[in-house]
Amino acid sequence: MDIGIGLPNTVPGTEAQTLLDWAKRAEGAGFSTLGTIGRLVYGGYEELIALTAAAAVTSRIRLTTSVLLTPLYTNPALLAKQAASLERISGGRFVLGLGLGGRDDDYEASGLSTKGRGRRFEEQLGELKRVWAGEERGFAGAIGPRPVREGGPELILGGGTEASFRRVAEFADGWIMGGGTPDMFAEAAAGVDAAWQKAGRAGSPRKLSLAYFGLGPDARAQADGYLLDYYGFLGDFAQQVAGSAAVSAEMVAQYVAAFQAAGCDELIFVPTGSGLDQIDLLAEAIA
């Protein structure tokens, strides 16, 4: 199982230089990917821009949106162009993770309705694939640049419903769980595999998950401070999210072992703070 680390693009107070330093140090520490999470109505850096900055100062590590809230990007042809641009700039290292999101205010701020978002999402996915395949648009020709990877950037989708699993099988290369226990992962992964087989897809989808972490002497306070704010809209459930964060080397090791046993291909540890020592502490915990 690959072990990735999140970029602290949503951690309040993170300076731009910190994002660059974090990307370079994470690559040097041997992590498999830099992941991003994001919302519109929150004071964080937009994911595609943050990962483009990271691409400029790294050369090996993958760059993964985990996940981008696709319906908010209402021009899918432009999103396809942005994704292909980042994939080419990074030398094929970009992985486009997409999902629907769970906050009404992100949609309200965009002038969008949550009604019908699943249908719109599928329409967007189809358009992304057509653009990356080089479909010509009348006299204007195809939308470039052509991706490095045949068929476009690696595409992974989030979601925990049967409809989500069907979309993975129809459009994507893999699936990601945005949070939950290893047992929840194993159960959902089985649903993804079943949809994949039903669709007649060869091989198997790549399966990923996220897990929050905070390490060091103030780990619990750091994790609670960030997660209770970021997930405050969930009410009492925010306490469960915060409580699930790995706040010790032992918890990190337990998560790695459990997710690996559950069939996870890549586990991305998402930071709850932006101190660069968090990278070193995580690397030590998984060594």
The fraction of residues assigned to DSSP E strands is 15-25%
Q: What is the count of structural domains?
A: 1
Order of helices and strands: EHEHEHEHHEHEHEHHHEH
Q: What distance separates the N and C termini?
A: 13 Å
Total DSSP E strands: 8
The appropriate CATH architecture is Alpha-Beta Barrel
Task: Report the structural category.
Answer: alpha/beta
- Tell me which oligomeric state these chains represent: single chain
- Name the CATH class: Alpha Beta
Protein name: LLM class flavin-dependent oxidoreductase
Domain Luciferase-like: 8-237
Keywords: Flavoprotein, FMN, Monooxygenase, Oxidoreductase
InterPro entries: Luciferase-like_dom (IPR011251), Luciferase-like_sf (IPR036661), SsuD_RutA_monooxygenase (IPR050172)
Keywords:
TIM Barrel; Luciferase-like_sf; FMN; 11 helices; 8 strands; eight-stranded parallel β-barrel; oxidoreductase; SsuD_RutA_monooxygenase; alpha/beta; LLM class flavin-dependent oxidoreductase
Task: Characterise this structure.
With 287 residues, the protein is of the alpha/beta class. The protein has a single domain, classed as Luciferase-like domain (TIM Barrel, Alpha-Beta Barrel). It contains eleven helices and eight strands. It has helices at 16-28, 47-56, 76-89, 104-109, 117-132, 162-171, 182-198, 219-230, 237-243, 249-261, 277-286, and strands at residues 2-6, 33-36, 62-69, 94-99, 154-158, 174-177, 206-213, 266-271. It has an eight-stranded parallel beta barrel, surrounded by seven helices. Helix 2 links the parallel strand 2 (33-36) and strand 3. Helix 3 packs across helix 5 (117-132). The chain is globular and about 60 Å long.
